[in-house]
Amino acid sequence: MTGGVDSSSDVLLATSGYDHTIRFWQAHSGISLRTLQHPDSQVNCLAFSPDRAIIAAAGHQHIRMYDVNANNPNPIVNYDGMSKNVMECGFQCDGQWMWTAGEDKTVKIWDLRAQRVACQRMFQVDAPINCAVLHPNQSEIIAGDASGAIHIWDLRNDDDAGSVHMLKPDHEASIQCLAINQDANYLASINNKGDIYVWSLSQSLADQPCTLTPKTKVPAHDKYGLKCRFSPDSCLLATTSADSTIKIWNTADWSLRQTLTAESQRWVWDAQFSADSNYIVTASSDGNGRLWSVDDGDVRRTYSGHQKAIVCLAFHDKSPAI
User: Which of 98, 155, 281, 315 has its CA 20 to 30 A from that of 264?
Assistant: First the structure.
């Protein structure tokens, strides 16, 4: 299927993984709208541009950018030359630049306004980077690496030689995912032991980065932790794991609100909340995406069609409800 996606729609959902395809879905019905071939490698991360006209797919040694609306099955922009897996990518809020992070131990900034595709800035650490997140202030990127370190890169600082701030919550665990809530007062991480760490974030000053104050630690999962995501209303934190579950935590007291399980579900690699925080979409190794009700824990829709594990999704919701 090569058409049927409208980027002006209130809800856009795309999934990808190890079957070398990117699939677009009608979120409320579970109908597959379009399938793009991505033959070069698996896809590690998906991200919609702010205007939702472009979807970026990060894979092994490259990034491909596709037109969401057009019937063109080929990428319209190619970013090649990375030495290893690109694990994260995202867009600045005005779409002026894109950031990437990966196993080559770097975070890179790419100027999307330039005619020639080139890395504009680069920040390097001493271990492969598993995850990164752009602060809502658009001025800081926080990255987590395989050594267990969390780095804060202040983009207002012209010196890219080193991180402004670094901490290691657990020297024997790798950071698998980082999340900042929309109010920018919490940073959460999940590691390969399944533990959540939460910090209070101070407000950044004009010439100083944000600072982190330890808030809590929660032993969320008994197996490998994979993702953590705040709900848009900042009241919930979702965590996913190799234990085949998604757990929903109340941020008021960090108590467990809900555990989401399905009979065939395996590792849960990714998750995103709906705009009203009442639903969550997940991606699993069983090849299925799922839409869950946070309130009752039921699966409302299943997105079936991938032939191998789904490890990432992009979900852009501007509606008050699905």
Answer: 315
Question: Phi, psi (5° rounding) for residue 171?
Answer: -70, -10
Give dist(CA 55, CA 287) in Å, integer.
21
Q: What is the rounded distance in angstroms from the CA atom of residue 4 to the CA atom of residue 2?
A: 7
List, for residues 241-273, the tens digit of each pLDDT value.
Answer: 999 999 999 999 999 999 999 999 999 999 999
Handedness of CA 229, 230, 231, 232 (dihedral sign): negative
Token pair recorded at residue 118 = 């080139």
Q: Please count the other Cβ atoms lying within 10 Å of the Cβ belonging to residue 110.
A: 20
Reported pTM: 0.94
Helix (H, G, I), strand (E, B) or coil at 319: coil
Amino acid 297 reads: G
Share of residues in the chain with pLDDT > 90 (%): 84
Residue whose pair of structure tokens reads 């207002």 in the numeric block: 156
37 DSSP β-pair partners: 21
DSSP letter for 280, please.
Answer: E
